[in-house]
Amino acid sequence: MLRINLASRPASCAVAARRIGPPAFVFAFLLLVWESAARLSLVDPMVLPAPTSVATNVVDGFAGGVFLRHLEVTLLQAASGFALACLLGIGLGSLTTLSERFSRALQPILIAVEATPKIALAPLIIVWFGYGLGSKIVLAGAIAFFPVFVSTAAGLRAADPGRLDVLRALGASRAQLFRLVALPGALPHIFAGINVAVVLALLGTIVGEFMGAKEGMGTLILYANGNLDTARVFAILLVLATVGLGLHWIIGRLRRHLLFWEAARSDALANATATASA
User: Fold this and answer.
1) How many CB atoms lie within 10 A of CB 142?
2) In this predicted model, what pLDDT tens digit does every residue of 183-234 receive, in sequence order?
3) pTM for this structure?
């Protein structure tokens, strides 16, 4: 067993290097071109500040505690909105598959709500829920809801009919069919929707902070933009992009932990591909 693990480790490293290497090279090249253009005064620093200036602003923002304090507020609101979207999306997605009558009644309403731009509803949400946490949570949840709902409904409707027929023949109830077949089979679809929703929740929170807030990364962006501090704006955007990547990584790790059979299958396929190409 130890020999198999040792043999598969180089293959895994080779696969990781192939995935990370090209994007890292392109990113480093773009940074070099960007820094050179800024140093040679080919672009106005107010329009496109040098990467070193952006990095200095990131360090200063965290060293002074400003970024950390406002980031905590934004993450709290985004996490609450994301949880609301998951609760409603998975719940309503499950109900639509369990009851066709409920699905037909709810479908036109959901389509109309989704067709309405959520950002256009932001002023109304601010009026209804105020300038506090409530409006940011509702807006984040509204923007992140639909991917979770659609992926849940699609995953549950794609349940293996053969397994369902076997359990029905054994006298399984509708709840048992849902718990033993439909829900486990739908988890990959649900996680795909969650992976999209987690970033949309962060986006909804920033939009809500743009509309009116006293704290949060969105307010820092507005303040820096008002002062024409473009390097500060880029620094805040860099922090938010890093947070988005971190959220994607967390969802990916959670998916690998819960869907361990799918992760094992993907690893085996990747190792076999690397071994064959070597």
Assistant:
1) 23
2) 788 888 899 999 999 999 999 999 989 888 888 999 999 999 988 889 999 9
3) 0.80
Number of alpha carbons in the 13 Å side-chain half-sphere of residue 224 = 21
Sole residue written with tokens 């990584």: 249
SS3 (DSSP) at 44: coil
* pLDDT digits 0-9 by tens, 23-71: 777 878 888 888 888 788 787 778 888 888 899 999 999 998 899 999 9
Which residue in 139, 160, 143 sits closest to 89, CA to CA?
143
State the Cα–Cα distance between residues 80 and 138, nearest whole angstrom: 9
Q: How far apart are CA 207 and CA 201, in angstroms?
A: 10
Please name which of 174, 202, 179 lies closest in space to residue 75, comparing C-alpha atoms. 202
Query: What is the dihedral sign for C-alpha 18, 21, 26, 27?
Result: positive
Distance CA 238, CA 256 (A): 27
Q: Domains in the chain, start-ordered, CATH in brackets?
A: 65-277 (1.10.3720.10)
